[in-house]
Design a protein that fits this description.
It is a single chain. 28% of the residues lie in helices and 21% in strands. It is of the alpha/beta class. The chain has 2 domains: 219 residues, Rossmann fold, CATH 3.40.50; 113 residues, no CATH class. The strands form 3 sheets. Strands 3-2-1-4-5-7-6 form a 7-stranded mixed sheet, sandwiched between helices. A 4-stranded antiparallel sheet has the order 11-10-12-13, with no helix packed on it. A hairpin with a 3-residue loop joins strand 8 and strand 9. It starts with a strand and ends with a helix. About 9% of the residues have low confidence.
Length: 351
């Protein structure tokens, strides 16, 4: 039995499974993402999820993961998915009734990608995995709730809700909606591992550490003192909140700016990053001084670390494609937290 990862991307869910000692097989069509997965050691079928015959996987899948493309529903895009939402609801209902109307509905959509949100239900109905984990932008919540209702009708326990990546050890306040379903145990949201400002010990002595900051994960704490000059005779000493491997002569606090508008989000290094949006805004995710003076763009390595990937993850493709993969991926620590309560159920059945 295996875990199937639809729209697998560069391996956010896969890295979460790897942290739990497990592996998946991804279905992905993008060549750069497939190359990244191969370099990282994640098995992949290069295919279109919507065209792939799910029946080829009958009795082979114990867990189903999916993060359908979110561009049509994302706040960073044109949100044409909102126009197509009724067609997506119809697609879900039709699949539940045993009718495949995807081709007709796709032709009626303002953006054909909107209808990809129904694909996880198609695979779930055909394969009946023991557990399911789905992720999308919050705007898709009504469609996930509809999907959960249909899954409940065939015997799944379900939960849907929005999770903040910062609550699970990611230095980014990224909010995404999840659908969790299980045929073998109650579906429950994961327990947070961190909290905004941390929490005090309860009656059982348990407490949560504060959210990780960009400074924590990028390797340069705000209190660190850097010496520049001759190490024998001394030199200029100053505190810095800039990433240690890219330190400049400025002794000012750095901020990360996401966006080009006057209202663009700015976060200090002693805070988590805001949601990292690349796509058209890629060149506007940059470090600035406290007075707003540009320093430089965010690097691929920094973006990957802020998304919860290892520093040396083997990204493939152009710089634009690498940022695109990072921005679309599920942060691995969040993926592991969501999957941890589900995976034992699959292992027990497989055994």
């Amino acid at each position: 039995m295996t875990v199937l990862d639809l729209f697998a991307g560069p391996g956010g869910w896969s890295e979460g499974l790897r942290a739990l000692g497990l592996r998946d097989i991804g279905i992905e069509t993008d060549s750069a993402a497939c190359a990244t997965r191969a370099a990282a050691g994640h098995a992949t079928i290069r295919a279109d999820v919507a065209a792939y015959p799910s029946t080829a996987l009958l009795r082979k899948v114990s867990g189903l993961i999916a993060s359908p493309p979110c561009q049509t529903f994302s706040a960073a895009g044109l949100r044409v998915g909102n126009v197509d939402r009724d067609l997506c609801h119809q697609g879900l209902d039709d699949l539940a009734r045993g009718r495949d109307t995807r081709a007709t509905l796709r032709a009626a959509c303002s953006d054909p990608r909107s209808l990809l949100v129904v694909e996880p239900l198609r695979y779930a109905l055909d394969l009946r995995p023991d557990w399911i984990a789905l992720e999308e932008v919050p705007a898709v919540a009504p469609l996930f709730e509809h999907t959960a209702h249909l899954l409940a009708g065939i015997g799944y326990s379900t939960w849907t809700g929005v999770l903040n990546a910062a609550d699970f050890g990611v230095a980014q306040t990224r909010r995404r909606v999840f659908l969790i379903a299980s045929r073998t145990r109650p579906a429950l949201p994961p327990e947070p591992t961190h909290a905004d400002g941390g929490t005090c010990a309860d009656l059982f002595g348990a407490s949560l550490p504060p959210w990780l900051t960009m400074g924590d994960v990028l390797g340069c704490l705000p209190s660190e003192v850097i010496t520049r000059g001759n190490h024998t005779t001394g030199g200029s000493r100053f505190p810095t909140t800039g990433p240690s491997w890219t330190l400049t002569g400025r002794a000012r606090s750095w901020l990360l700016k996401v966006g080009s508008r006057p209202t663009a989000t700015r976060r200090r290094l002693d805070q988590p990053a805001s949601t990292l949006l690349f796509g058209k805004a890629m060149n506007h995710v940059a470090w600035i001084d406290a007075d707003g003076t540009p320093i430089r763009r965010l690097t691929v390595e920094e973006a990957a670390i802020l998304q919860g990937f290892p520093a040396r993850y083997p990204w493939a493709g152009s710089r634009t494609k690498q940022f695109e993969q990072i921005g679309n991926a599920v942060p691995a620590p969040l993926a592991a937290a969501v999957l941890r309560p589900l995976v034992p159920a699959a292992l027990e059945v497989a055994a």
